[in-house]
Amino acid sequence: MSTIADNIAQVAARIRAAEQAAQRAEHSVRLLAVSKTKPSDAVREAYAAGVHDFGENYLQEALGKQLELTDLPLIWHFIGPIQSNKTRAIAENFAWVHSVDRLKIAQRLSEQRPAELPPLNICIQVNVSGEASKSGCTPADLPALASAISALPRLKLRGLMAIPEPTEDRAAQDAAFATVQKLQASLNLPLDTLSMGMSHDLESAIAMGATWVRIGTALFGARDYGQP
Ligand SMILES: *Cc1c(COP(=O)(O)O)cnc(C)c1O
């Protein structure tokens, strides 16, 4: 049996156990497989084991894999930092963007989303760990950004994304994810998505309302950024 398939089964069991612990419906949490730095063969293996949604951080790498995998009906999510000169390719080649943190980027994505494609699903990345992270809008800037993005014609604002600072303290981890959930609720917009939780903290994120968990290492193993 393949390791990736084993890992998927283990992560699916962790997700189900966390749903149950939080008295949430089965399949209320969806698995986004983060395939950054991993070859298209790993994506193929994960697809064969039942995963359809894949997250990528680096545009050129993602476009290369997409070309190698056009035979599969995959759903691609962009989850990395976005420079404005990358928005057109992102608008043309992804179904979701989880990492929008400023209006200029959202405006470009809306203008550049091809007319024949459905609206691009958007999560606003919010920074709930202050100095610890440079990515994400501040909680103070979130309400104005969310209302401006929800008015853009070719985008569909779905919810928030966050990467709280990792901590071994479960109560502190829960508190950080709870902050994201409260920020989302305070917006009073029809949002259905909370993209939060990674390999090490998915249980905490699911307890606090995550609907997408973004999982890399626990599915594909450690990433090697070192060697070419
Ligand atoms: C790499 C990455 C992940 C996956 O992290 P793991 O700890 O490997 O599960 C999730 N979200 C984002 C934004 C990432 O960059």
From TrEMBL:
Entry-annotated residues carrying N6-(pyridoxal phosphate)lysine: 36
Keyword Transmembrane listed: no
Organism classification: Bacteria, Pseudomonadati, Pseudomonadota, Gammaproteobacteria, Pseudomonadales
Pfam family, one: Ala_racemase_N
Keywords assigned by UniProt, alphabetized: Pyridoxal phosphate
Organism in which the protein naturally occurs: Pseudomonas fluorescens HK44
Xref: CDD domains: PLPDE_III_Yggs_like
Stated family: Belongs to the pyridoxal phosphate-binding protein YggS/PROSC family.
Function comment: Pyridoxal 5'-phosphate (PLP)-binding protein, which is involved in PLP homeostasis.
Cofactor(s) essential for the protein: pyridoxal 5'-phosphate
InterPro entries xrefs: Ala_racemase_N, PLP-binding_barrel, PyrdxlP_homeostasis
Chain ranges passing through the membrane: none
Gene3D superfamilies: Alanine racemase (3.20.20.10)
Residue ranges annotated for the Alanine racemase N-terminal domain, each copy included: 19-223
Any GO MF annotation of the entry: pyridoxal phosphate binding
Name under which the protein is recorded: Pyridoxal phosphate homeostasis protein
